[in-house]
Design goal:
Elements lengths: L4 H11 L1 H31 L5 H7 L4 H12 L3 H38 L10 H32 L5 H36 L3 H14 L1 H31 L6 H35 L34
Helix pairs in contact: 1-2, 1-10, 2-5, 2-10, 3-4, 5-6, 5-7, 5-10, 6-7, 7-8, 9-10
Length: 323
């Protein structure tokens, strides 16, 4: 009997929770390191800003206009240095993410393929093709961010005050289209990682294999994406409802307790999202590794004659029967 890829994905993450914890480990470790670097970057930048006694007096005045004037005096002339430092930090984090994500995806996909092949001897994945896929994911993400900000900036600069409402709506439409295009490209690049590990494809070969895979098995792939998308949405709704409880009691509870509860709920939701991501990836691997359903292997297009038909039957022959 054919097995459901969606059920196989859920079954895999429940039977092998180490896969989900591995995804959490590398994502959260990198996120924590990136957050620490950004925090240190902000503190180091603030330490380089000159603050005079006059600026201190303005800051202590508690007058909004005077505080803004003091802030302007403090940051004046440091914008270029801030941009330079930000570019260096962004490049370092991008390179680090490409390397870490390639290594992590090689390990997780190899474990998934070994699971469905009933063997722990899956082929050693190529790190360079995976790094290429992660590089494309990073560049497309950067392009999407720049495109979204550019839509608001250009339309806001080119429109008049009377046209600001229409310009904002048009910018939102462009932003939505950019986000949709980025989602599709990012999904294909994520799916292509499977073919690097499973078939030893290079970067562009894996992308082509992902496109062919969608064309051949579009139905099961769509079913898996829909099922896990609904599960993710349900997890988000549940987390939102649970988070509303401490927020509703914020007036009666200490602020630290409310913040701690919101933080725990958010972390649990993010952990569930990572588990669902691994389940969806396992479902895609199941579609690739498990036998196709009989309906996909129909002999309707076979050129061989059926055993139940006599090819010598005159009614099926194009040779006229003798008078």
């Amino acid at each position: 009997m054919p097995r459901s890829p969606t059920l196989e994905g859920f079954r895999t993450v429940f039977r092998r929770p180490s896969l989900g914890f591995a995804e959490i480990a590398w994502r959260w470790s990198f996120g924590g390191a990136a957050g620490l670097l950004i925090t240190l970057f902000c503190f180091e930048y603030l330490d380089t800003l000159p603050v005079t006694r006059g600026d201190l007096l303005l800051l202590r005045s508690r007058q909004p206009l005077l505080i803004l004037r003091a802030a302007g005096n403090i940051v004046r002339g440091s914008g270029f240095r801030l941009v330079e430092a930000f570019i260096v930090l962004a490049l370092a984090l991008t390179v680090g993410w490409i390397v870490v994500a390639a290594l992590a995806r090689a390990a997780t996909v190899k474990a998934l393929i070994g699971h469905f092949r009933d063997s722990n001897k899956a082929a050693a994945p190529g790190i360079r093709p995976l790094a290429g896929l992660m590089f494309f994911r990073a560049t497309t993400s950067l392009a999407a961010v720049l495109g979204g900000f550019a839509a608001f900036g250009v339309l806001g600069f080119a429109s008049t005050p009377e046209e600001s409402g229409m310009a904002f709506q048009l910018a939102m439409v462009i932003f939505g289209l950019v986000w949709l295009a980025w989602s599709v490209v990012n999904w294909f690049l994520s799916l292509a990682a499977i073919f690097v590990v499973a078939n030893g494809e290079d970067t562009f070969g894996a992308i082509a294999a992902a496109v062919d895979f969608l064309g051949l098995r579009g139905g099961p792939v769509f079913a898996v994406g829909t099922s896990f998308g609904l599960a993710h949405f349900a997890a988000f709704i549940v987390a939102s409802i649970v988070a509303a409880v401490p927020l509703g009691l914020a007036a009666a509870l200490p602020g630290r307790l409310v913040l701690a509860a919101i933080t725990v709920i958010t972390l649990l939701y993010l952990a569930m999202a990572d588990f669902l991501y691994m389940g969806r990836l396992a479902a895609y691997v199941a579609i690739l590794e498990l036998p196709m359903e009989p309906s996909f292997q129909s002999s309707a297009f076979s050129t061989q004659p059926s055993a139940s038909i006599d090819p010598d039957e005159l009614i099926l022959s194009d040779v006229p029967a003798p008078g």
